[in-house]
Amino acid sequence: MTSHNSPYPSDRQPEHPPAVLARRHLLATAATLGVAPWLLSACASATSSVGAAAAPSTAGGRRRLGPLEVFPVGLGCQWRPGAAPGVVVDSYSSRFDRAAAIRLIRQAVDQGVTLIDTAEAYGPFLSEDIVGEALQGLRDQVVLETKFGFDIDQVTGQRLPGGRNSRPEHIRRVVDAQLKRLRTDHIDVLIQHRVDPNVPIEDVAGTVKDLIGAGKVRHFGMSEPGLQTVRRAHAVQPLAVIQNEYSMLWRGPEAQVLPLCEELGIGFVCWSPLGMGLLAGGVKADSRFAMAPDMDFRAISPRFASEVLPANMALADLVRTWAQRKNATPAQLSLAWLLAQKPWIVPIPGTTNAAHMSENLGAASISFTTQELQQLNAAVAAIRIQGDRLPPAVAAMSGVEAPPRP
Predict the structure, then answer these.
(1) Where are the alpha helices (DSSP H) in 214-369?
(2) In the chain, domain spans
(3) What does the alpha-carbon distance between residue 278 and residue 23 come to, in Å, rounded to a whole number?
(4) Where are the alpha helices (DSSP H) in 51-165?
(5) SS3 302
(6) What letter would DSSP give residue 16?
(7) Most exposed among 93, 109, 195, 338, judged by the fewest C-beta atoms under 10 Å?
(8) Residue 179 φ/ψ region, left for φ over 0, alpha for ψ in the -120 to 50 degree band, beta for the rest
(9) pLDDT digits over 271-317, tens only?
(10) Helix, strand, or coil here: 147?
(11) Of 8, 92, 122, 246, catalytic
């Protein structure tokens, strides 16, 4: 969502020529059990000059996510009620109202977006309800992703003490409720939001397989899972996607997750592809993030702490320099870099600003020569990012391996 939850006062400030759209804020948004009342997710046109020999992994056209085919840039819809009545906020200080959220989604589809991502935990329930209303009359034009996996009362939306819950009976109740909120008869990709440390993944995958057999779900996915859990799940019900954080700010998936996706033919969806706004230009060295009335997730994110943020701005400076070189905005450059890594990677930036949404889609027109990509990758790798990527309580839910079957 723009800077995912930000209406946002710090929305990217134009530092580029008029021909270049203002950059986007931040998008990934996350919340965590015990750390914030929201939930972590999920996970935001100018074209560039293209050199003589394009790299094998360039942007453009459609992309494969396992068995699916989608536009190269999707839309993340992760919102929750704001402190003020009628206000909808994301995780990064951005806000608008429900009507504007519906318009944004419909405009995205009109402009070619075919992957819409949300989750029951975003709100809870609010984001799914908005997406369901927005897609009336447009449902057959999109691949709709949503998620399960937290212990949320399906009537009240109250988060229960259990934290995560992927018990088969709970999954079935969640999906029935999701179908109603989303106003559809099927979910294209049902994603386990985080691995449940108390439920064998074979039980989870088997339940999703049954839901696929019943026509309620079409494909299976997982977010931030342990590697062996992926293999075990895939053996029961093949995964279409893995959804993890990935950007120039956090390159963790490159070590093992992306090779595993390539091996198994699983698509990869990036949440927080704009590094929580840092890559899009919405963060300054002296930025401070609100705890109230609507908490900005970056206020509890170690990489945005005042003592390390000035050093981490070196990456934002690099992105800005390369964006100017490619006649793009920093947001577009950052998304295009992701698209250039593998032909089966799709970022899902979020925004509350229609202009930023359109700007993000322009990333699909940007290509890198082989030499450019090598230079940019080397420059990114040379910058040492300070601070952990997530607060401890949130990080603890990533890379979890499900227990074995008794």
Answers:
(1) 227-236, 257-264, 309-325, 330-341, 354-361
(2) 63-395
(3) 11
(4) 98-110, 126-134
(5) helix
(6) S
(7) 109
(8) alpha
(9) 999 999 999 999 999 999 999 999 999 999 999 999 999 999 999 99
(10) strand
(11) 122
pLDDT for 190-225, tens place per residue?
999 999 999 999 999 999 999 999 999 999 999 999
Instruction: Determine the Cα angle at 398 with ends 393 and 400, to 5°.
Output: 110
Dist. CA 26–CA 58, nearest whole Å: 24
Given strand 217-223, what is the order of strands in its sheet? 75-76, 115-117, 143-148, 187-192, 217-223, 239-245, 267-271, 345-347
Tell me the whole-structure pTM to 2 decimals.
0.87
Asked whether the beta carbons of 383 and 318 are under 8 A apart, the reply is: yes
Q: Does domain 63-395 have CATH number 3.20.20.100?
A: yes
Q: What tokens were used for 171?
A: 């999954």
The alpha carbon of residue 303 and the mean position of all alpha carbons in its chain are separated, in whole angstroms, by: 18
246 in catalytic set: no
List Cβ neighbours of 276 (8 Å cut-off, separation of 6 or more): 3, 4, 26, 27, 28, 92, 249, 283, 297, 298, 301, 303, 304
Please name which of 135, 14, 51 lies closest in space to residue 373, comparing C-alpha atoms: 51
Question: For residue 150, what are the β-bridge partners?
Answer: 164
pLDDT at 378: 98
Burial class of residue 45, CB neighbours in 10 A (0-12, 13-18, 19+): middle
Tell me the per-residue pLDDT of 47-74, one tens digit each, with 9 for 90 and over.
Answer: 332 222 233 333 458 999 999 999 999 9
- Cα–Cα distance measured from residue 196 to residue 51, given in angstroms and rounded to the nearest whole number: 47
